[in-house]
Design goal:
Elements lengths: L3 E4 L5 H12 L3 E6 L2 H15 L4 E5 L5 H14 L5 E4 L17 H22 L5 E5 L9 H4 L7 H22 L4 E6 L7 H7 L6 H13 L10 E3 L8 E3 L8 H15 L5
Parallel strand pairs: 1-2, 1-4, 2-3, 4-5, 5-6, 6-7
Antiparallel strand pairs: 7-8
Helix pairs in contact: 1-2, 1-8, 3-4, 4-6, 6-9
């Protein structure tokens, strides 16, 4: 069955690989990027590679939450339903450490933006068939520092990246409990994959980017994962491919999860209205 799929951060890296593979299967695929020229180029490239004309895109800079809101409005206006949302967009290095609101850029792009986008797209996902939300977590998960999240204290990229990914994982489990008809799976797609983000951050890689692209594809449409929700998938484990595993202990602490969600709603404030 043809699915309607939106993948954020999909003009390169594992998002682009997953989008290409899904388009080759005949799914209706929507890319997302922050550069209009690059987004148009990648859309045409995937159409050519897949022979699928049902490939389109949305433009938004995820460091700007007003742009995320506007993108969500556009998606709601243009799509009658959404079967799969892959929150893949992420950042480690950036020329700007904070956005215009004064929040750490990793918290904004890796956690606040998908939180806001997903919340606004829930009505479309509720209309989907075997709807799934795939959230890009990481092997790097560090306890949330609420002063850092609020932008009143600064910490290095490595710390805030790990915090943003744990926050995303904790929120994934929370939304899974609240949206019983939608499967929600946070996933570590694999450590140090051969992507631009990894090479810029570490100058080296351990595995092919295909490892990450393939698991996003599987989690999005494979019948193997139908009905699976609120489980953390670790693509660094397992023999043939990854397997479900344990996330950071904080992700299973209900009091900590509730504090995270309450604080997130307070920080984002008017963006959620």
């Amino acid at each position: 069955m043809k699915k309607t799929i939106l993948i954020t951060g999909s003009t390169d890296g594992i998002g682009k690989l997953a989008a290409t593979k899904l388009a080759k299967d005949g799914h209706e695929v929507y890319l997302h990027g922050r550069n209009a020229t690059k987004l148009t180029k990648v859309i045409e490239e995937i159409k050519s590679l897949s022979g699928n004309e049902s490939v389109n895109g949305f433009l938004a800079d995820f460091s700007d939450l007003n742009a995320v809101k506007n993108m969500a409005t556009q998606v709601n206006q243009e799509l009658p339903k959404l079967d799969v949302l892959i929150n893949n967009a992420g950042v480690w290095n950036s020329k700007n450490s904070h956005n215009n609101d004064g929040w750490d850029i990793r918290y904004v792009v890796n956690y606040f933006a998908p939180y806001l986008l997903t919340k606004r797209l829930l009505p479309l996902l509720q209309k989907g068939n075997d709807s799934r939300i795939i959230n890009l977590s990481s092997a790097a998960q560090d306890p949330v520092n609420y002063d850092v999240m609020a932008g009143t204290v600064n910490q290095p990229e490595r710390a805030t990246y790990g915090q943003s990914k744990l926050a995303l994982t904790m929120w994934s489990f929370d939304i899974a409990k609240k949206q019983n008809e939608i499967s929600v799976i946070p996933v570590n797609p694999g450590s140090l994959l051969n992507t631009n983000m990894v090479k810029e951050a570490f100058g080296q890689f351990w595995s092919s980017a295909d490892k990450g692209g393939n698991i996003l594809y599987d989690l999005a449409v494979s019948n193997e994962y139908t009905g699976v929700t609120a489980k953390y998938f670790d693509n660094d484990k397992g023999e043939v491919k990854g397997t479900f595993s344990m996330a950071h202990p904080d992700a299973y602490d209900q009091q900590k999860v509730e504090k995270l969600i309450g604080t997130t709603e307070e920080i984002l404030g008017t963006y959620l209205n």
